[in-house]
Design goal:
Elements: H1 2-8, H2 10-42, H3 52-69, H4 82-92, H5 94-111, H6 114-133, H7 136-152, H8 154-162
Helix pairs in contact: 1-2, 2-3, 2-4, 3-4, 3-7, 4-5, 4-6, 5-6, 6-7
């Protein structure tokens, strides 16, 4: 989204944000529905014993993120999945979202490096999930988001280490 904004400006960026958000929300809801109904119907495990809805949200969101980052129609070269992962955090639990989004926003505000905030969000997601949900399985599953986000930002990490990363600005250079 940041690269799209830098290339095309603000008017079209809203459309990208809206489609990324809706795509992630629908993927999480579909995953939640499928896990909720298929596992409850197929098992004798009480509904309160296993948080199947959280598994469904994470799985649906993970498929959304992989599809966003590696779309076959664009020869497997897509976005970096930050907004998709952030929406999954919101859909999972507001406390996880607060930790992930709060740190992301603080880093972007104080450093103006969107990539640094994104890397923080990806690496913090599994820790925040474990801290809030107390489930190692959910933390490992959310760790897949972190791995994908860091993988998507490997060029940014190299530029950050060399001091060559672009800072975010709302103003276009003339």
């Amino acid at each position: 989204m940041t690269n799209f904004y830098r290339t095309f400006g603000g008017a079209l960026t809203f459309v990208v944000i809206l489609t990324d958000v809706l795509k992630a929300v629908f993927a999480c809801l579909i995953g939640k529905y499928l896990f909720l109904h298929s596992f409850y119907a197929a098992t004798v495990i009480p509904r309160y014993a296993v948080p199947w809805t959280y598994f469904g949200i994470l799985w649906g969101g993970l498929f959304c993120m992989v599809g966003h980052m590696f779309p076959w129609i664009f020869h497997f070269k897509g976005g970096k999945g930050v907004l998709s992962g952030g929406i999954v955090a919101i859909m999972l639990d507001w406390r996880v979202a607060l930790i992930v989004w709060g740190g992301f926003l603080l880093l972007v505000i104080f450093t103006r490096y969107v990539s640094l905030g994104s890397i923080y969000a990806g690496t913090m997601f599994p820790f925040a999930t474990y801290f809030v949900m107390h489930s190692l399985v959910l933390a490992i599953l959310s760790g897949c988001y972190g791995v994908l986000l860091v993988w998507g930002h490997r060029a940014n990490i190299r530029r950050l280490l060399r001091g060559e990363e672009n800072k975010f600005s709302f103003h276009h250079k003339k």
